[in-house]
Amino acid sequence: MSKILIIDDEKSIRRALKEILEFEEFEVDEAENGKEGLEKARAELYDIIFCDIKMPLMDGMEVLEAFQKEKIDSPVIMISGHGNIDTAVQAIKKGAFDFIEKPLDLNRILVTVRNAGDRTKIVEEKEVLKKTIKRFKGSSIIGETNEINQIKEMIEKVAPSDARVLVTGANGTGKELVARSLHDNSGRKSNPFIEVNCAAIPSELIESELFGHEKGAFTSAIKQKKGKFELASGGTIFLDEIGDMSASAQAKVLRALQENVIQRVGGEKDIKVDARVIAATNKDLRKEIAEGNFREDLFHRLAVILIHVPSLNDRRDDIPLLADHFLKIICAEHGIPRKSFSEGAVDALKAVDWSGNIRELRNIIERLIILCDKVISADDVNSYANPKHKSA
User: Fold this and answer.
1) Residue 194: other Cβ atoms inside 10 A
2) pLDDT value at position 70?
3) HSE on the CB side for 252, CA within 13 Å?
């Protein structure tokens, strides 16, 4: 349910606007002056804010400037009974989403609210997309070995469903690419793909990251925050390295999977979510279950479909394709004229023991491109691919 704040010193306007919005099933808060409105906007996360211009203590333009300064990103709809074109233009220049004159028109209000809601969704999706593009730029599942072709076939079959998938494999094998491919080939592809690295988030913060928190839930919770499950609603949430998740968070994720509801940290209200869950781990979860580190019931909820990503050492015949793929991308990224590998260089790459898998291969390719001549030789590979890692 979207949450709206109304800032207006006229009680009758607040009441009328609140009744309209609550009838449309919005959750509504009120503030009777600009100062109170600013304090509420600092403490809560509002999807839309209505703000009068002429108010005591702090007028609407000052509130709008404060929002901009403090990076409060909620769309602000300015309302005024003393408005004119100059006032409207000034408000829009200061960052307002729209300007509505009093007396308020019902249809205009509802159209503006819908447009502001669409804008909020677009902004959120844009931020997710920017992060995704940065992370996955030039990436895809590259390879033609039997192991990789089997994964591609599995993705083709599983992606259109909402079945939960557990992706296993060592670090650097490309588990996140499998998750991304499942999302991109699903009916949810136009909605967010939200990634959470469970190993990178301190255990005391993982629940807040996943489920969000209410203001005051803990010392640094100065305002309400949506969690990753809420942000992924309608799309996919990718729980990477789920084997490192705390027992408390495991219990809450299990409930989210069972009931499709979450509770923010410090909150009591159930929030419905609709996110497809794809999880990944480099651990043997059955061993973790036996040692009491992972919940067996959560494992069975997650592992409806199992996909194992092989190590690079187990798919050496894909190395020429991967090396050429990374060479194109990295030369373009650095603005370096296109280089190439000699036949001996490719053979030398296939002979390396790739303990770091594809991630290590990409790093080595980048090193070779920066340090070597136009044609990369076998000697170059032997010099810069860390000889200690070469297999016998």
Assistant:
1) 23
2) 87
3) 20
Report the C-alpha gap between 74 and 79 in whole angstroms: 16
Threshold 0.90, pTM exceeds: no
As a whole number of Å, the CA-based R_g of the chain is 26
Tell me the three state secondary structure of residue 64.
Answer: helix
What is the DSSP secondary-structure string of 113-158?
HHHHHHHHHHHHHHHHHHHHHHHHTT------SHHHHHHHHHHHHH
Main-chain dihedrals φ then ψ at residue 351, nearest 5 degrees? -90, -10
Cα–Cα distance between 247 and 153 in angstroms, integer?
A: 34
For residue 271, pLDDT beyond 50: yes
Helix axes 106-136, 11-23, angle to 10 degrees: 60
SS percent in the chain: helix, strand, coil, step 5: 50, 15, 35
Other residues' Cβ atoms within 10 Å of the Cβ of residue 167: 25
pLDDT 10s digits, 92-148: 888 899 988 888 888 889 998 988 887 766 666 666 655 555 444 434 789 999 999
Report the C-alpha gap between 109 and 373 in whole angstroms.
Answer: 64
Per residue in 191-246, pLDDT (tens digit) is 999 999 998 888 888 999 999 998 888 877 888 889 999 999 999 999 999 999 98
Go through the domains of the chain in sequence order and give each one's CATH number: 3-123 (3.40.50.2300), 137-308 (3.40.50.300), 312-389 (1.10.8.60)
Of 325, 323, 367, residue with least CA distance to 344: 323
The rounded distance, in Å, linking the Cα atoms of 218 and 261 is 22
- The arithmetic mean of pLDDT across residues 285-296, rounded, is 96
CA dist 345 and 368 (Å) reads: 11
| pLDDT surpasses 50 at 332 | yes
DSSP-derived pairing of the beta strands 27-31 and 3-7? parallel
